[in-house]
Amino acid sequence: MFASEPEPQPGCERSREAFERAVEALSRKERGAAELGAWLAERGFAPAEIVVAIGRLVEAGALDDERFAKRFAEDKRELRGWGPKRIREALAGRGIDGELIDAALAGERRDSQLERAIELLERRAEAPADEASRARALAFLARRGYDSELAHDAVRLAERRAA
């Protein structure tokens, strides 16, 4: 239990249990509030118990959708090479508010995205050299969440670098 957290009122054993399970879940994997709420619901907790548990975690600073969105976006950019569209879809699918998603994606410049997309293409075994390989490279970048204009630029630059 968090030191700054007040003890639940008597008769709130299920709320306490929901809170404790949520703390355990967050210790294994960072989540957003909606995702954690769904996780608790799947384990049979009532909506009121979930609201209490999530409220306590938010107050304690252990659950913060803004922090989660920023970390998630950074991790997916750096570790997986995802583009903004894929990150946006994944965060929205986890119940993160659109404004928080916009804030998490706002700091990245186009040239950083372009360089990451080129690096992804360079790591692939196939350099874009003909129409078929360029089409595969564009499809690959689209699946990674890059917009078509940036993907075309990345393919052209990767092709020039490979030549």
List keywords for this structure.
163 residues, mainly alpha, Arc Repressor Mutant, subunit A, 3 domains, 9 helices, elongated
Quick summary:
By secondary structure, the protein is an all-alpha fold. The protein is 72% helix and 0% strand.
What does this structure look like?
The chain has helices at 13-28, 33-42, 47-60, 65-80, 84-93, 98-106, 110-123, 131-143, 148-162. It has 163 residues and is mainly α. The chain folds into 3 domains: 13-63; 66-106, Arc Repressor Mutant, subunit A, CATH 1.10.10; 110-162, Orthogonal Bundle (Arc Repressor Mutant, subunit A). Helix 4 packs across helix 5 (84-93). The longest helix has 16 residues, at 13-28. The radius of gyration is 21 Å and the shape is elongated. The protein starts with 12 loop residues before the first helix and ends with a helix. The model is unreliable at 1-11 (pLDDT under 50).
Furnish the topology, listing elements before pairings.
Blueprint: H1 13-28, H2 33-42, H3 47-60, H4 65-80, H5 84-93, H6 98-106, H7 110-123, H8 131-143, H9 148-162
